[in-house]
Predict the structure.
Amino acid sequence: MTTDGFATTQLHTGYVPGTPQNTVATPIYQSSAYQFSSLAEARELFALRRRGNIYSRNGTPTQAVLEQRITALEGGVGAAAVGSGQAATAVAALALAGRGGHIVAASSLYGGTVDLFDTTLADLGIEVTFVDQDDLAAWRGAVRPTTRLLFAETVANPVAQVLDIRAVADIAHAAGVPLVLDNTVGTPYLIRVRDHGADIVVHSATKFIGGHGTSLGGLVVDLGTFDFAADPAKWPALFEPHWRFGDVALWDAFGRTGALTTLLKSRFVADLGPALSPFNAFQLLEGLETLDLRVGRHAASGLEIARFLADHPAVGRVFHPGLPDNPYAARAAEYYPRGVPSVFAFELADPGADDEAAFARVARVVDALRTIKLVANIGDARTLVCHPASMTHNHMTPDQLAAAGISWATIRISVGLEDTGDLIADLDRALREA
Ligand SMILES: Cc1ncc(COP(=O)(O)O)c(C=O)c1O
């Protein structure tokens, strides 16, 4: 494990300049496949007896640097990079809960994750029970003998519920399963979830890690904390010898620090194909070099904007855990000493009689914004808003929306890196004009 600080790690880990063209920046290795020095070497690599480059769906040197850097920042033992955050959640869930497993998940999740859990995984025979993430008895009560993981977001998007990670981790461990956290909004800079009991992290690197709204990517990070060997029968993909791996069990070949990432890469990413392109890996690495600077500023600006909105006569509730009257204020202060993530929501003060009236009011505000853009994304350098009920979460049923705390008057904002005063002026003008 590195002894370097966060900023040094985010710049240097995983890349050794001087090989082979002495570029100080990590190169984009844009090659579909790799040449072997001999057939004997190819045989060793294919049998996974040696690590090396084979074919870009299995991994690339550019991606390997990204994996090592995020692993170091999260304090893990290994990572698998994939083509999107959605793919990261999907391969993690399939690897852990395949063959008819069950997942207990928070009901406040990114809409795409709800879709994945609710329909696609259900079609594949993986059942998901959604629970109120603050109801610890509900987490406990939903666990079954077939449960294979608990899943939540560190700070749930869009209304910024702050997860009590330690409490949910304890429930997961008492049930003998890992806690998998989506730390896209939290980022490894604002929170190191390993220190609070999480076992596996997924990221949409598309957001704050890349930070510039240019490139999709995702990561699954194994923090190496979960003891799969305590109950091998639960994890046949890790403990049963498999002909694909020379009739050896992945756990026996790669152990606690390598078995899960090898399973992810050599089976689920290789078979399903959601590879990360070398170019996107490069873009994400570029963004990662300034993660601490950007995220610190995002957080400070977000808090200032939340305070402005909370005082505005046209605004009703503001869901920012940095505000003293927010129900998560104390938990946020405990878990996020460096600042609260800059993705949060607010409601208009007078939304109207029904959903359509609320939609019309929100549309007038959103369409009047000039500096702030209407975009279904978060974690961009630009400030973005979206209307979850009609956009990111539009597949959810009214009950699911209510469980996630979303109404038709809810506007999500992802505060970017512009001058905070300009953002406040833009919001103020749009709220007044509307
Ligand atoms: C919290 C969270 N997790 C996962 C995803 C999915 O990531 P991607 O769009 O990179 O597939 C998103 C996308 O918005 C997200 O906000």
Remarks:
- The two ends are 53 Å apart (CA to CA).
- The chain has two domains: 6-286, 291-433.
- Residues 84-86, 110, 112-113, 153, 157, 182, 184-185, 204, 206, 216, 218, 378 surround pyridoxal-5'-phosphate (CB under 6 Å).
- Residues 291-433 form a domain with the Aspartate Aminotransferase, domain 1 fold (CATH 3.90.1150.10).
